[in-house]
Amino acid sequence: MTQIEDAKRGVITEEMKFIAEREGIDPEKLRKLVAKGYTVIFRNKVHDWVKPVAVGKGVRVKINANIGTSRDIINVKEEIEKAKVAVKYGADTIMDLSTGGDLDEIRRRIMKAVDVPVGTVPIYQAAEEMLAKGKAIIEMSEDDMWNAVEKHFKDGVDFATIHVGVTKEVVEKMKRVKRIVGMVSRGGTFLAAWILHWGKENPFYKDYEYLLELAKEYDVVLSLGDGLRPGGLPDSGDELQISELYTLGRLVKKAREFGVQTMVEGPGHVPIDQIPAQIRLMKIATDNAPVYVLGPIVTDIFPGYDHIAAAIGGAIAALNGADFLCYVTPAEHLGLPTVEHVKEGVIATKIAAHAVNLTRFEDDYKWDYEMSLARGALNWGRQYELAFDKEKFLEIRKKRPTKSEGCSMCGELCAIKIIQGMLRMTNK
Fold this sequence. Notes:
CATH superfamily of the largest domain: Radical SAM ThiC family, central domain
Strand order of the largest sheet: 3-4-5-6-7-8-9-10
CATH topology of the largest domain: TIM Barrel
Number of strands: 10
Structural class: alpha/beta
Largest sheet: 8 strands, parallel, barrel
Number of helices: 19
Shape: globular
Strand content: 5-15%
Radius of gyration: 23 Å
């Protein structure tokens, strides 16, 4: 049985109990949300060392960190370090997007290195194996694609991005609907190119029930990929993006009926004023499936700072119903992120998620409330205890040239200290 099948039967699984306790919510409420497909639980049946995580309605907004090798840079040790650093600074899940080296070994080593759910994009491996043979990506056979999916599921990945919505119909529309940036999803592009070359339907769409059978066997959450997400602000909300979205909505319904958990991936680059409408439309089109967004990135002119642009978009998206934020690092659009980039990306996205979570969960707000008390009392020790990134806190504090109670910006002109002193004097 899958989590959604058990939930429909009225069974509260061990995973639901674990998550309910961690989230501070009623297990029965969680069961009902899982039964409807409004919330999903990441835990592949064979990934027995993972701590399950829930994404969707009624639980905290979660964040994901992408890591992985490229064909240019293959350093497995560093990718494992990135995974550990991401988890240390708040990532709820990791996605291994490796495209260079021994992908099987890399994936398995990353999964062993962390105890959080791990996701992948299996089509990347099918494509890389073609290139390793000296062939073009479009020479992939349908069996090559399915073999990659099955291999990842057997290895224990908890969720997988499958670009099921890149159909032959929408690829034909691409000939008519012109975009500024074009198609930026790697997996989606591999399939679109394959469709254009062979004139055949996307195998994952054509044989969707077989995909559901594989996912059901291992209880993998299918992350229905946004192959036609906008890669630049001018393309946001166009016919291609919305057409794919409604296809994904139909596939969500079919998966739920089949007993498979699904979530839907969302837009990449979206003007800030369009984010609320786009998230709400995604929820309507997919009957409240969990929404997984990359950013969204709200401006295109700040390469090197895209983690900040994405955190702004992520906070607005989460406030309007997005459930799962994929981090963006300072290296986005520029190169493979370093360990430090991973840390910066995770913390920026964590800020976005926490800013929304504290409005929904008393414990999250209490953390901020306690920090306010500590600041009001100029209690630096307590502020250190409550600081999310204690290393950064100490790094900045140690550079102070003054030993006054305030920070070095205010020193003896500390507003808090002055007003407290005056209030004490006037109350005598």
